[in-house]
Amino acid sequence: MTALDELAVVPFHDAASPQRARMLSRLADTELSVALAREPAGDRLELQIFPLESGPVALACDGEDRLAGFFGKPVSFAAMPGRVLAGLLQQEKAGLLVNPGFPSEMLLDAAMLHWLTDALAATPETDEARLRLTAADPATVEALAEPLAMRFADMSGLISAAALAGIEGENGPSGHILLIAGAATEHQPAIAKALAEALSFLPPQPGGVDISFSDTRPPQAALRFNLESSETPPAEKPKAPPRLR
To answer: Any idea what DSSP says for residue 125?
Structure first.
């Protein structure tokens, strides 16, 4: 079982939108072995493209053994992160078939890859102003707690603490902010970018979610993440991102 398989409790195309978005987010960070038409010539790659009824697609697996198993023999391939492959295929106006025959099988057409690359282009909005912070809205906690906890688990060693707080408004939180502690200055832009990407795959929240790096103790009412475990109370199904069909 790979990390993608473990997320595929329900097959990708039968899963609810939040689960599909979570799988796509993981796909972006997964090293994929993509089939080539021939051995690379220098730094030039020619992807093997299959003409399906739904449009041309490349084939990739999260392991070269899976790729060879699909063809029944060794095959020329290139290894690259899913985010890089998605960008290449967007230029080719082709889709992507991932892990055929395995729990995490997914068929992403060109439009879906375009949505994915747009989501990955998300940039963070940071806010270090002195804000009046309060407890996060319960609906926001239900929508964001579990997937953010999983993302923070990937950052073990880069940050020491993380919390989600509301920004006080007249009638409750007017927005939300992620408070990140213990991040080295040189790592903060990459961490902020990774969190902005993660948020772009989740249901949008009223007022948005800002990101702040500070070693100041978060307010008592803030939701604090356990960085040693990605386990959080189960969330109800929130309003989902666009259905990726």
So the answer is: -
CA dist., res. 175 & res. 205, Å (int): 8
The total number of structural domains that make up the chain:
2
Same domain, 20 and 84: yes
Residues in the chain: 245
Beta bridge partners of 97: 59, 107
- For strands 223-224 and 209-213, give the pairing: unpaired
Report how far residue 10's alpha carbon sits from residue 208's, in angstroms, rounded to the nearest whole number. 29
φ, ψ for residue 170 (rounded to 5)?
A: -70, -35
pLDDT at residue 164 tops 90: yes
For the chain, what percent of residues have pLDDT higher than 90?
Answer: 37
Task: Give pTM, 2 decimals.
Answer: 0.59
**What's the sign of the alpha-carbon dihedral 23, 19, 189, 217?**
negative
Query: What mean pLDDT comes out for the span 155-162?
Result: 91
Helix 82-92 × helix 110-120 angle, to 10°: 130
Rounded to whole angstroms, the Cα distance separating 61 from 77 reads 10
Q: What is the CATH number of the domain that holds 30?
A: 3.40.1350.90
Query: Within a domain: residue 242?
Result: no
Distances, alpha carbon 14 to alpha carbons 24, 198, 243, in Å: 14, 22, 11
200: buried, middle or exposed (CB in 10 Å: 19+, 13-18, 0-12)? middle
pLDDT average, residue stretch 49-73:
92
Report the amino acid identity of residue 234.
P
Rounded to an integer, what distance in angstroms lies between the CA atom of residue 97 and that of residue 130? 47
The answer to whether position 22 is within a domain reads yes
- Domain assignment of residue 233, yes or no: no
| Residue 106 domain boundaries | 3-120
